[in-house]
Amino acid sequence: LAVTRVFGPVHAKLLYAEAFRTPGFGNLALATDIQAEKTRVAEAEVGYRFDDRFSASANVFQIAIDRPIIYMSDPETNREGYFNGAQTGSRGVEVDARLFLLGGWWTAGYAFYAPAGLNEVDDYTVPGRSEVLRAFPRHKLTLSGRLPFGPVRLAPSLVVTSARFAELRGDADGTPVLGDAGPLVELALNATWRDAIAKGVDLALGLHNALDRRNAFLHPYPGHAPVPGPRREVTFQVAWNGR
Q1: In the predicted model, is pLDDT for residue 241 greater than 90?
Q2: What's the whole-model pTM score?
Q3: What gap in Å lies between CA 71 and CA 134, rounded to an integer?
Q4: pLDDT by residue (tens digit) across 132-177?
Q5: CB 106 within 8 A of CB 143
Q6: Cα–Cα nearest to 126, from 115, 141, 110, 112
Q7: Which helix (H) or strand (E) holds 181?
Q8: What are phi and psi of 123, to 5 degrees?
Q9: In the chain, count of helices (H) and strands (E)?
Q10: CA-to-CA dists, residue 171 to 78, 175, 179, 230, angstroms
Q11: CB neighbour list of residue 78: distance below 8 Å, 6 or more residues apart
């Protein structure tokens, strides 16, 4: 359910949504008695268009998940499975700005969340850090742009987050140890040359994780080591669209 309204350069939105997720085959293979989880989301957004070159918006939200389906593992018995928790969720704010500069568009964003008493799943908590959930940073900054240089379009992007906590390694006995994985930093640059070889044939060159950071995929539950993420990558693409 959404209500939207435009007042000249101002726009406003109120939104409420509910959804559910049923257990998948993998869940039911390990736990036949789990139930579907239900999500409730409430949002309020307001934005302002200053002129044709600059606009900004802010959004506050609350997400609550009832009966979340949670993965569990016991290294002593080598047993794994799923169960329904009581509730988890968060409250937060997102701010976005869009600016026409240097002949192209730039977009900047900031996002913040806090459990705010909505999380009742012990497996998702960080001991001594009640303000954060496992694997998820509280703060996230994004910056992206799209700049034309004749037939070439450059698209740089940057993502920076605050600290993230998860089980990163094991001790001498193999017991998982919770630690700080540090911030996530992702810098990328993509260049597209339109009609490079012939009409409708485009060439694209991409540089991903330009700083070659060790950005692992963290798990928000105990008993699972991080999955290594991709290191620096260079991609080349040829596309034909027949326009």
Answers
A1: no
A2: 0.85
A3: 14
A4: 999 999 999 999 999 998 889 999 999 999 999 998 887 777 778 8
A5: yes
A6: 115
A7: strand 176-182
A8: -65, -25
A9: 1, 17
A10: 18, 5, 12, 26
A11: none
User: 37 with 63: CB under 8 angstroms?
Assistant: no
The bridge status of strand 125-126 relative to strand 79-84 is: unpaired
Say if residues 34 and 83 touch (Cβ distance below 8 Å).
Answer: yes
- pLDDT reported for residue 243: 60
Cβ-contact 98, 142 below 8 angstroms: no
Neighbours of 90 (CB within 10 A): 21
* Burial of residue 137, with CB atoms counted within 10 A of its CB: 0-12 exposed, 13-18 middle, 19 or more buried: buried
B/e letters for 100-136, b = 16+ CB within 10 Å, e = fewer, are eeeeebbebbebebbbeebbebebbbbeeeeebbbbb
Amino acid in the structure at residue 184 = L
Q: How far is CA 23 from CA 19, 31, 80, 85, 165, in A?
A: 14, 9, 16, 13, 27
Mean pLDDT of the chain: 92
Yes or no: say if 106 and 98 are a contact pair by the CB < 8 Å rule. Answer: yes
| Two structure tokens written together for 118 | 């909505």
Rounded to whole angstroms, how far apart are CA atoms 118 and 132? 12
Q: What is the DSSP string of 12-39?
A: EEEEEEEEEE---HHHHHH-TT---EEE
- What would the two tokens of residue 81 be? 């499975």
Q: What is the pLDDT of residue 195?
A: 83
Neighbours of 3 (CB within 10 A): 9
